[in-house]
Each structure stands twice: as structure tokens, then as C-alpha cells.
Records
---
Amino acid sequence: MSARCCAGQLACCCGTAACSLCCRCCPKIKQSTSTRFMYALYFILVTVICCVMMSRTVATEMKERIPFYEHICKGIQAGETCEKLVGYSAVYRVSFGMASFFFIFFLLTIKVNNSKSCRAYIHNGFWFIKLLVLAAMCSGAFFIPDQDTFLNAWRYVGVAGGILFILIQLILLVEFAHKWNKNWTAGITHNKLWYGLLALGILILYSVAVGALILMAVFYTRSEGCTYNKILLGVNGGLCILISLVAISPCVQNRKPHSGLLQSGVISCYVMYLTFSSLSSKPPETILDENHKNITICIPDFSQGLHRDENLVTGLGTALLFCCILYSCLTSTTRASSEALRGIYATAETEVARCCFCCAPDGDGDAEEHVKESGGQVVIYDEKRGTVYSYAYFHFVFFLASLYVMMTVTHWFHYEGAEIEKFFSGTWSTFWIKMVSCWVCVLLYLWTLIAPLCCPTREFSV
């Protein structure tokens, strides 16, 4: 490792320089990307700690393998067997520290539009110092007096924040569906081949939605019992038909000519995904067979075999879930997403049709001029003229994500006895959270269709 690279890492940890790798063969990285990546690493680190605290297996292994385990626990005042460091209450405390960390930065970066301001330097640098602050805040939460009152109050804050995080993701999903259709229909005026691409996209989306509904009907229902599953599959399948008919109805087409089956296909696929996720999260139903033995019904037969290796299923499932949460955080913290939540959209005249419409074209032509080489990965300082995303909105989304992770790991309202090994065993809290999210998504999309009819004097951009 060269001296220049060591100096660069030191400037990153204790100064305002952007973080980068020491390998020159790595592709160039923008300062804005580097900053978001570092905050994402902090988020992942605390999330992993929360999962470990909820793991019965890890607690048992530590007790058996660490010498003088009980003496260490007493020395740090965590109880005789470190019971204060495990379970839902420990996760609540650690999540309080992480959420407070991001909330403080949210307040600190409000109305920061220039990357050269003092607050922007704090946001983009001093990573080692910020790591120490995060660790201190997570640790300090264990010394909050009157723990019972704190945990009860913080639980309601977590519920509100988690629901708000879900709502933001649903709003952005609906906006994504409209943006996709708007972008591709913009290309029809220049090339009629976009008609074929639109038709192909609609066919794929509805094939996936119909196929998912059929598979769930086969694997999650049976001739006797499974009443909940049958009703929910019927209701959600009917909602998909409803939004499709409304999207192409003449009255909606008159006010929103860009409305079509592509948006309703995206929403239908997401409804089917949430339906599957809800049914998988529902506590299993049991009945007595002819031998008077309890058998589990309304779940796929192969899933019973998968649950035999609980550690493998839990590990892979949890990793996939939190990767999705992290992806949601990063994709919903762009400037376009924050503007969409405030009702600001690109005009039809400036819309350029692209197959990968999510990736904005490079309009930052002079970004390459601001390059810094520190003996390792090349850093492009792309915020010389101003911030490329909203710092405050970025931290607010991660604040809400911290609360969502806290509630998800502790099984929402079924926190007593919650363990990461039972993460996929199913609880009614998780089931209804996902099912209600599904219906809210449909209502949001329907509102974007009928709002121009209800308020004809207003101009709607979506």
C-alpha cells in the first residue's frame, strides 16, 4: 500500500476527503456514490448486530465458547448471562442509537445545496469519527433510565416510522410505474418499434401476475379449509382486474391519455408478490388427519422440507430481505425520488425514451474535470457545482429504514419471544402489515387514475 493511498485513507477517516479503495484497477467512483456507500455500510453493520442480538444460536455459542463468559457479562453490567444484550429490548436500544444518528444528520443537512459548506463537509467526510459517534449512541442507549417506559414509547415510534417507510416505497413504486410508461410512450413519436416493446412488457408483466396467482391457488389452498387464503387470493386477483379495467376505461383515458396496461401490470405483479409474501408469513393452519395427528395445511409441501434446515433458510432469507431494504433505501434517496414525492416531474418535452429508463443520461459533462488521484481508486468530485441529491432526504429515509428494520426483526407486535431463527415461522402482525400494504398500493394507484376526474381543475403531472 503506497504512502499516498495511506494518506488518502487517513484524510477520508479524519478529514473531508471522499473514501476510495487503494487498488488503481478499480473503476472510477463519484464522491456522491462513495458517501452513500459508506452510510450504507454503517446501516448494514448495525443491522447485522441487530440480527445477532436476536439469534438464540449465537447467544448459545458465545456462552459455550467464550472463556469467563459470565464474569465478562457481570463486568460490563449486562446481567449474569448478558441477557441485556440479547432479545427484542437490545435491538430496540441499538436501533434507537442508529435512528438517532441518522435523524441528527437529517436535521444537520436541511437545506444544504452546496457541497462546499461546512455541513456538507461533515456529511461527506470524517468517517472514523462518525463511526465512533454511531457506536457511542448505540451503546449509550443501554444506559437510558426507566427502560420499560422507553421501550413502550419507542415501540410506537418504530411502528409509525416503519409504516411511513413502507408508504414512501409504495408511492415511489406507483411513480415508477407511471414513469416507465411515460418514458416508453415518449419514444413512439420517433420510432413505432416502441409499440412492440410496450406490448412485450405488458405481456410479460401480466403473464407473471396470472402465473403467480395460479401457483398460489395450487400451493396455498385445498378443497377443505384454507378459507383465509381463498378469500385473499380472490380479493387481490379481483383488485388486479379492477385496476386494469380502470386504467383503460374511456373516462380515465380522456383525462390521462398516457394511462395504460403497463402501469397496471407493474402494480399487479407487486400485488401478487405481496400476496405471496403475506401467505408465506401467515401462521400455519393445522387439522387432525384420519389418524388423529396434527398436520399442517395451506402451505406448499416442499416448504415443510425446507424448514428442516432452519439456519440455512433463515440466513439466506434474512440476507435477501435486508438487501432489498438497502436497495429500497438507496434507490429512494435520489433527487428524482425526493422530487417525485413533492410532485415535481420531468416534462414530456424533455423525456428521452430509453430501454433502461431508470439510469439517467450523463448530463454532468464536466464531472471528469474534477478528478482526484490518491494512489488508488480514482475519485470524481461530481458535486462541485452543487449537491446531486438531497442530503436531508437521504438521512430521513435511512432514519425510517432503521425503524423498519427494528420492527421487522422483532416481528412487529409479536416481539415477546421473537428470535431470528423464527423469522419465517409466520406471525399475524407480519401477515397483516404486508396485506394492508398491498391494498394501500392499489388505492394509491387508483387515486392517480381517478384524481384528475375528481379534481378536473387541477393539473396532475403523474
Note: The first helix runs from residue 3 to 14.
---
Amino acid sequence: MAQTLPKCRNIIFTLLIFSSLLQAQSHKFANKLSPKTLGFAKEKLTHLHFYFHDIVSGDHPTAVRVAEAPMTNTSRTFFGALDVMDDPLTVGPEPTSKIVGRAQGIYASASLTEARLLMTLNYVFTEGKYNGSTLSILGSNSVFSKVREMSIVGGSGLFRFARGYALAKTHFFNLTSGDAVVEYNVYVLHY
């Protein structure tokens, strides 16, 4: 019996060390993977063209102010204003044009000296091949510049691992109501 106890201790000790090694291996933080292991083929470049309808007036606005600073309404740039949007994306500039998705997110007046918005939003596609896929946009939008460029920082669905840029060009802007139609040309690299 005296000899059995040391043998049992050695076996238990060995099992404890072995199980702790297994446990340490099963909780690895990061692994290098090949894109092929996730089913990704060759990377491709896609060009998307659509119109963004930002309606802030009327009974059915698609963008609404949710916060503002005490100085927002006296600032010539509306500094501190924060708006949430769910704007339709259409094939053409007309409000009756076919909807292909939504621009959902926020924009904030982020400059004291010019009309410049911080834009953070998702293009949520609802039609065709890209139905259910999204692109995530983050960037500065100097709204009175002829063409503005914003970064594509990611995506989902067919746009997983997306990167690229979006070019915005105002098609129509009503100074009285604040409603706008913006043409977008989007260039995105994805798998």
C-alpha cells in the first residue's frame, strides 16, 4: 500500500500537468489563417452607383436631429448637432426611383469653421446580388465641396473584409428645407 500511494501521486500529478497544458492550448488568443480556409477566393473590385435621399422636412423625414449643443443654433456651421438617418438609396435621383438599400447611421456637425460632417453609417443593401450585405462608412464630409471622399472601413455578407472609398457629389440641395439628394460612386475591394 505504501508503494501504491507514491505511484498514484505521480499519476495524478502527470494528469494535472497534462490537462493544464491541454487547457492552455484550447484558449489560444490568435491564429494565422489563409483566406482560403474561410472560403475566400480572389479579391475583386466592385463599383456601386446610387443616390442617397436625405429628407429632413415634412411629415416623413428620413433624418432627424437627436441632440445639439447649447451653441448649435447660433453657430454658422450648426456645430454640435447630431442627426440619425435611415435614408433610402436609389438607382436614380428621383424619389420614386427603385430603392436598392438604406443609409443607416449618424452624422454630426463637427467643425466650427465650415459645414463639415462626421459621418458614420452603414449602407444596408436590400436588392439584387448584395441583398443583406452592408458596407461601413466613416469619414469627413465637407458638404459644400463639389466631391467628397469617405472611407469604407468594413462590411458584412458579400462585403466581408471590405475596404475602399465612397465619392459623394450633391445632386440636389434645397436651402429652405435642408432636403438633399447625393450621388454616390463607391469603389470597394472585397472577396
Note: The chain has one helix and nine strands.
